Amino acid sequence: MIKPLNSTGTEDIFFCLTDADIQRALGVIIGKTNRVGALNRFALAQEKINGQQYTVNAVSMHGKAFVTEAWTY
After folding, report:
1. How many C-alpha atoms does 59 have within 13 Å on its Cβ side?
2. pLDDT tens digits along 22-68
3. 24 phi/psi in degrees, rounded to 5
4. Could you list the residue range(s) of the whole structural domain that residue 46 is in?
C-alpha cells in the first residue's frame, strides 16, 4: 500500500502489485495538495494486513485527547 505521509481518510491510497503500480501511485501523490491543504512531499509504503478494521477519531484540546467516535468494519 502506498499513501501520502500526511493526509486524511482514504485519500490517494493505492494497493500496488508491481513496480509500475508503485511509480503510478507516487506520480499521483507526490506534489499534490491534499484535502487538508498541505503539499504531499513524501509517501509511505505499508504492508496490507487483512482482517477486521478499526477506526477511531479523536480531537485534542488543552493537551487532552478525546475520542469522538469509534467503529469497526
Report:
1. 4
2. 999 999 999 999 988 999 999 999 998 899 989 899 999 999 999 99
3. -65, -45
4. 2-72
User: With 90 as the cut, is the pLDDT of residue 9 above it?
Assistant: no
Query: Domains in the chain: how many in total?
Result: 1
Output the DSSP codes for the chain.
Answer: -EEESS--TTTT-B--SSHHHHHHHHHHHTT-B-TTS-B---EEE-----S--EEEEEEEETTEEEEEEEEE-
37: left (phi over 0), alpha (psi -120 to 50) or beta: left
Closest CA to 12 of 35, 55, 61, 71: 35
> Which residue is listed with cell 506534489?
31
CA atoms within 13 A on the CB side of 12: 26
